[in-house]
Amino acid sequence: VRLHPVKNHQRGGISVADRLFFVSLQGLAGDRHRYEITEAGASLELPYDDMVVDSDVRLDLELDRTGTVLMARGDVTAESVMTCSRCLESFTIGMSPRFEVVIQMGDEKHQIEDEVTPPVDFVDDGVSFVASVREALILAIPMKPLCDEGCSGLCQNCGANLNLSSCDCPQEPADPRWDGLKILSEET
């Protein structure tokens, strides 16, 4: 386990983004604390064109403090508009990723326990979990987003959306390089 410092913001230079999913640590005694925080999805400024979060994003956060160690567990709930990898149509998907952050609290600076832990930003007397929420949502993006498991996709010849209509294109592979594979499959 390696401790490394996390950026600290000075009073007066705080941006609006620094206050997203913000929890004050001032006077936070030991034991368990629960928070429900809702922010606008557009304020997360996600870097992907294939993923748009227009709805509200909810964070159910649980903080456990034992001495100088603060354990944060977050459950994120959001709806995202994505593009289906088979038919290229837009669809809405519910996302509910989780994250955990272990913070070593100190007099001057707070530190994150390891490099694998999602990032947090320390602001004045508290912590913003916006970077953790953003990272959890990005990591929850499916490798192949599908509007439906049974999505038929697009016709390889004419490009018709096979979920909406059928086409009269031949069902054989259009590329003659597949002919050898076709012969092998017919022999077995």
Explain this structure to me?
Helix content is 10%, strand content 35%. It has helices spanning 130-139, 179-187; strands spanning 4-5, 8-9, 22-24, 31-40, 51-52, 56-66, 69-83, 90-95, 98-104, 111-112, 121-123, 126-128. A hairpin with a 6-residue loop joins strand 9 and strand 10. The chain is mainly β and 188 residues long. The chain contains two helices and twelve strands. The chain is elongated. Mean pLDDT is 79; it is low at 1-16. The strands form two sheets. Strands 1, 4, 5, 6, 7, 8, 9 and 10 form an eight-stranded antiparallel beta sheet that branches.
Strand content: 35-45%
Give me the number of helical elements.
Answer: 2
Q: Helices and strands: which structural class?
A: mainly beta
Q: Average the pLDDT over all residues and give the rounded result.
A: 79
**What can be said about the biggest beta sheet?**
8 strands, antiparallel
- Give the N-terminus to C-terminus distance in angstroms: 56 Å
Shape by Cα distribution: elongated
Q: Assign a percent range to the helix content.
A: 10-25%
Cα radius of gyration in angstroms: 24 Å
What is the N-to-C order of secondary-structure elements (H for helix, E for strand)? EEEEEEEEEEEEHH
Described by its quaternary structure, the protein is: single chain
Regions with pLDDT < 50 over 5+ consecutive residues? 1-16
Q: Nutshell version of this structure?
A:
This protein has 188 residues and is mainly beta. It has helices at 130-139, 179-187, and strands at 4-5, 8-9, 22-24, 31-40, 51-52, 56-66, 69-83, 90-95, 98-104, 111-112, 121-123, 126-128. The strands form two sheets. Strands 1, 4, 5, 6, 7, 8, 9 and 10 form an eight-stranded antiparallel sheet that branches.
